[in-house]
Amino acid sequence: MEEVRIGVYVCNCGTNIAKVVDCDAICASLSKMPNVAVARTYKYMCSTPGQEMIVEDIRKNNLNRVVVAACSPRMHERTFRKALQTAGINPYFFEMANIREQCSWVHENEETATAKAEALTRAAILRVAHHEPLENLYADMCPSTLVLGGGIAGLSAALELAESGHPVFLVEKTDRLGGNLARVDLTAPHLYSARDLLTDRIARVRANPYVQLMLESELKSLSGFVGNFTAIVGAAKKNGDPHKEHVLEVGSVVVCTGYKEFDAGRVTHFGYGKLPNVVTSFEFEKMLREGNIRTKEGRIPEYFAIVHCVGSRSRDFHGYCSRVCCMTALKYAHEIKSAIPNSYVSDLYIDMHAFGKGHEDFYRGSSEAKTLFLMYGKNEHPVIKRAQPGEESEMLIEVNEQLSGETIEIPADMVILMVGMEARSESGDVARLVNISQDKDGWYIESHPKLDPVATTTEGIFIAGTCAAPKDIPDTVAQARAAAARILGRIAKQKIEIDAVFAEVDEDLCSGCRVCNSLCPYSAVEFDEEKKRSRVNSALCKACGACVAACPSCAIKARHFTDRQIFAQIEGVLR
Amino acid sequence: MPIRVNPKLVNEIERYGAEDVSKCYHCGNCSAVCPHSTQPFVFPRAPMRLLQMGFESKLQNSLEPWLCYYCGQCSEQCPRDAEPGETMMSLRRWLISRYDFTGLSRLFYRSWKAELGALLIMAVLTGVGFLLWGFTHGDIRSYDGPNAFLASSAVHIFDWTMAVVLTLFLTANCVRMWWFTVAGRKDISVPLLSYLRGVYLIPLHFFTQKRYAECGHKTSWAVHMVLMASYVTMFVLIMFFLHAVQAGPEINWNVHIFGYLATAGLIGACIVMLRARVKKDHVWSERSHASDWMFLVLLLYVSVTGILQHILHRSGLGMAANITYVCHMMGVVPMLLIEVPFSKWAHMAYRPLAMFFADLTAEALLAKEKKPSGLSSPQLAEIG
Ligand SMILES: Cc1cc2nc3c(=O)[nH]c(=O)nc-3n(C[C@H](O)[C@H](O)[C@H](O)COP(=O)(O)OP(=O)(O)OC[C@H]3O[C@@H](n4cnc5c(N)ncnc54)[C@H](O)[C@@H]3O)c2cc1C
Ligand code: SF4
Ligand code: SF4
Ligand code: SF4
Ligand code: SF4
Q: Does the global pTM surpass 0.90?
């Protein structure tokens, strides 16, 4: 074996590290360790001169291992691995000691902090000696995509992919496309017709030869890994033809399964179901679409009341805000006033959420049109009851109005309940099939809520639209097209790069006990029935180490986290 | 008992000028910035709210609109351009029509045609009446003396008759105001002693307008003061010294100097105010209701014709002086009979009264709070 020659670099990070840790002292003491060929300190190791210093040392001094004691590896491990690659040695011959976040930032005593930083760096030096050269793996990227759900999200994602010339399987559970948007009349705040938004997209989807539309179908199973999934899609209804199953090879999946409306019947004080003219937003959308706003008795109402946050932002039902109902309520006020000019609209809200582009103007416009805005308390609620015969209106709403401090009574001939959005009841089944997680409300969880909002923790599975959380059309479409863009990027590369760090089962040692099989949170461990041995799918494995620790026969080895490496590291800390 | 919302009231108040009430979203900036808004009278947000919700009787019982002098700071600060200052102005108009038991006020405020029509009819009747009387009792060529066309002694009796009628109307309306804002309120009771102790506030506010001065707009206050002082001077001259004023043709400086000053004050103030309304150079002069125009134009007309007939008389032009005098009275009578009890001029009485009532209310609320019964703080304070 060639001689191990280690370069050690201790970073000052300006004064971030140097003000607590004596970097020069560490350097001087560690330079005496066996195998350490070079040891230096520098102001900013991650800067270009810092990186160039490493490259030059590797070349000049024949270094074959590098340790950088600096910030967190989450910050700059990639940067330094690149430097090793540039100098022509395997990037995995590198180890980082975190002496900033885990030392200088959290300690004040210079002496002990310096001792700790030295121990951490020593551990890295001992560990790096046992590093092995590793290579990333590559898999093929299948250019077809499976899109689940034919709402505006699914349609947008499918079009983006198909119009770039890539095959799409668009699976919709019902017998028609459009999802919930097909039930909406005009859309807030620009008052575009929902039908116009949809018909254009549906026509384009139907006409596109790259889209294979599968109505009344659903996903039955999904196996494989990013770039190489096998999906089985079958008839949606239970009584559907079980033989009509299709096996599809796809590289990515976009989940666009949307939401369902909150059931207003669950709230008793609104009298929904008992009072004939208490309707939900969706029932009212239907009246708007038919151009026929009438009470059950066929009269044209004079007094309208709109109640916000039905099922949302409440202690008893959902704590979250459904985001679109405030603007939808204003849209109703607008549509009512244009259909029945002599009517009066009261709008009962908790807060007015006018967060989006054009929303504040829409809110203002609604005030100018004399919508009467009334505020009720978050954990209180309006009570709707029938009025006495001979009253000016059919119903009366009693509520504790916050902006006047009075208990008031609002006349109403028709009450519209702004029902919120909730996760579909079968969203859990879909989550299990594609192996993604849900939050406490049932919405799918993104890989990172800010920086990676359409990806999930399972590579190759994307989420878009209202299946991830309530959102309006612009956000839904933006997400769908973002997911498509991510997929197109991968298709363009044609290959999927698989990280070199994953677990491997030594077939000779594995006893076939299957302890590891159910343990893996990413379903990466498969069981080879023929050989009676477990096997790790490297594309799925995230190197968490759960199986490694659990295997009673010590048959599983995590690459880059071998026993020898870990023990060396421990020894370094303890020495 | 819950209070019934009446969304129709907003439409009604629009006729009185307030067009932007619905835009208010209750941020409260206006109440924060208003120099007159203090506990327990916090405004203009709270009255805006009562108005939006159509709480008629609460509004009718409120004094807040009278505590506002339309400095316009609230409207300048409002992020929604809801014009709270203009709303308070409109509420004052509405309150005037509420206090008026005849319903004429309501008619005039809601329709400028009705107000103008009434002014014109009144003018024609006055003109015809004075001419008939003049021709039957005197000579149109002589202004004073035994053959005078309109003898000052007779005009004096006419003036006093009119004053009594006016006072009756105005008093009835003031009593209604008192009932709405103080006496009729169930949550407070004002002891007689308080009335006696505070009654000085009425003349104090009437003559000094001191709250107006607190607005920070000293010029507006000064103009207003000049107008008011001139008007009062003129009133005293006419009601008590008519004979001396009319006598001539020589100038009696002891009397006439007051008349000249008052006339100059009235004409000057009217011109300044009209100019501001035409130029719309302040928040408070940006929007004018028909009643504002009619009032100022009429006052200017009366002042100009008044001084004109005086000059003509002194110049020995008896007939011209008499004709001008009839024209003058054709302005004076409608102004006094329509504007004072039923329109803009009524605020002369209501404003100082409101200060007095506000003081009584505040005192009563405080006394109630101090009582050991531990009653909750006043509603008005809560909804500021
Ligand atoms: C009353 C109301 C009015 C609204 N008005 C507006 C507005 O004016 N402006 C605005 O911007 N937004 C509005 N919205 C929001 C708008 O409806 C949503 O933003 C949009 O519909 C979300 O689209 P989506 O594709 O994510 O979900 P969905 O429309 O729910 O579509 C999901 C689709 O997936 C299908 N599906 C579900 N599960 C499966 C499965 N397992 N397999 C296959 N297919 C499946 C469903 O059948 C459906 O077709 C409104 C919402 C409501 C409640
Ligand atoms: S968008 Fe408005 S109505 Fe809907 S839940 Fe949020 S706050 Fe309530
Ligand atoms: S290391 Fe973790 S992710 Fe990889 S196979 Fe084992 S349990 Fe699964
Ligand atoms: S009138 Fe204007 S400033 Fe006053 S509360 Fe309303 S929106 Fe705010
Ligand atoms: S106009 Fe001036 S006095 Fe009147 S409410 Fe507004 S800020 Fe107050």
A: no
